[in-house]
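Lecture 7 notes: from sequence to structure.

We start with a single chain of 293 residues. Read the sequence below before looking at the structure.
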Amino acid sequence: MVVIVLLVALALIAAAFTVVMLIVATRRGQLRPNPEAVVLGAVTNFFDTLGIGSFAPTTAWLKLRRLVPDRFIPVTLNTGHALPSVVQALIFITLVRVDPFLLAACIVSAVCGATLGAPLVLRLPVRVVQGVVGVALLIAATIYALANLGMMPAGGDALALPQNLFIIAVVVHFVLGALMTFGIGMYAPSLMMLSLMGLNPTAAFPIMMGACAFLMPVSGLRFLRSEGIDLRVLLGITLGGIPAVLLAAYIVKSLPLVGLRWGVVVVVLYAAALLLRSALTAPRAELPATDTA
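Now the structure, written as tokens:
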């Protein structure tokens, strides 16, 4: 029953987000997707479904190609990848078994954290956003390297957690939800934490994907109000991402990803260096990103 309620709620939130995004894009004359963003969304969401993650490589490409201003990178990540993440969550919540109460509690906690974090992202100075995203990329590169070296936690066989670990998991997902709005991906830290607690890593997938799928359109509804956001890029990532998720989940299912991860490490580190240099060398007196209704 809990899972059914979550799936229905997720579908309604996704529908509302889609309607609002299309209305805003129509009003601003940005209904034509950016072709480069379509390819970017397809590639990043394909490998995201297979376990690479989409935020770090998307951030690197957005920075290297200057598709959006640095201050709008977190906004673009959370809105552009929202609907592909919903598709992922619908697949994994349906197919993978996990304690439904742990699933629901972590999702609600992450959404609450994102609700707190979203307005902060829109008001922070550009250099702060650049610094946070740069550090996030360094963390992502480290996690990719640890995965390739076999140093990630193996996890256990549990499908549920005892009460004390249950509470810790919920609290941590609140923090991860807030950090998600800054462009810090949730998949890897959520998977690491739940695996260390003894949860079966496969059972962690619906939790981390479900949390992202709920919080991204919820925070995205606020982000869409920002006048500086480029709807053409968002629509491109979305339109490329959804079929790529379905292809990866139902047809490809698995690939040898070690070499790809090392390539991502190099690109992500380079993008992180550019962002951190921008944050350190930018003028101190900067206006924060605006939040316009």
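Confidence is low (pLDDT under 50) at residues 285-293. Keep this in mind for problem set 3.
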